[in-house]
């Protein structure tokens, strides 16, 4: 049995097969067909298609996305209490992925003629259920990385593949939606307002149905091609053990603190993307180029991340990337209206920075799992990732709401059945530039200050991992010795 355990530990550090990397990439591709679609286009859909006010949407985002954060913790507990013949994580992907994608369709299908109160109730309920289903898929998916390998290099590959999948999903969404909205807005003066809104609704309906098909295939391949190899001493983790692990996990606390500020800036940007393209750059069709340079640049940057990590280390690279985010964000705020080329340059600079930051966040989180196990003797992938994701959801709650509230404060005018494409005041345009450029720059500075004290360098991680594995091997050997003595 000791030999079998040693073989499992060795397997947990072997190079991953290409199918495992592709399968893991497809998992985040599927997640982003629901997540990025909502974070990038849902505010626009609610104000310019469903006709809700920016203020009411901002409040809804804050409340429901805060609920999403607690849903992450519930999902993490469910994961840590689960063990099946398929493992701890894959069953959640198998059973909840399709309902998640179908709920995305319903979220972008707000019924007409319900009245203000009933419409808001539908929006709150549908978005809350979407968030719960997303947690039940994304928490186990994110936790899966720490169970697939314990190799620093192989985890870097997993994170790179994940980032590529997420970027591909985000680019595909903007590539499909932005040109259709641009073409429709070009016809705004020739179409009756009710026809315009019906056609806008049809765009989102058809796209979410397409994503239901594509996402189901992607998640199915993730389930088939990704497997757990890391040895664990127990199948489930108690609530007491979970909180003991998290309370003593200083690297996780610092990572969550830095991530809070970075992501606060990111989520203000995603909700404002289509507004920035439409009202600052002058063409909603440019939302594709904006998305390509903001997040799609990850497709070019991510393949180099494993080598960059090997050269600089995750902590140093994380800090360098913040500087690029600040430069690009300030440039976007100062960009004159209609100066597309300058905005695209700034987007490229900021996009490289955030691509590295996002990759590093997901590369650092599995390391904190190993640290928590080394510190307490308990391995709690689900709870650790849930706390990390909890932080992301809180920032999504605040960032998404802040964007909507900023628009409302700036006097943004929502669509109505009488005026489908109203003109916007200068104060609304200033609000768009603030949330799209200045907020992420300030947030990045705060994040870098927090992350200075992060203690888990790559060298320290290897020491922690090796010591933890040696403890488990010694404990298993002692248990076998006791049994032999009996």
TrEMBL record:
Keyword DNA damage: no
Keyword Transmembrane helix: yes
Membrane topology annotation: Multi-pass membrane protein
InterPro entries membership: MFS_2 (IPR039672), MFS_trans_sf (IPR036259), Na/Gal_symport (IPR001927), Na/Gal_symport_CS (IPR018043)
Gene Ontology molecular functions: symporter activity
A GO cellular-component term linked to this record: plasma membrane
Transmembrane stretches, start-end: 21-46, 52-71, 92-110, 122-142, 163-182, 202-226, 252-274, 286-305, 317-334, 340-364, 398-415, 435-456
Subcellular localization(s) per the UniProt record: Cell membrane
A GO BP annotation: carbohydrate transport
Keyword terms: Cell membrane, Membrane, Transmembrane, Transmembrane helix
A Pfam cross-reference name: MFS_2
Top-rank lineage group of the source organism: Bacteria
Official protein name in the record: Glucuronide carrier protein
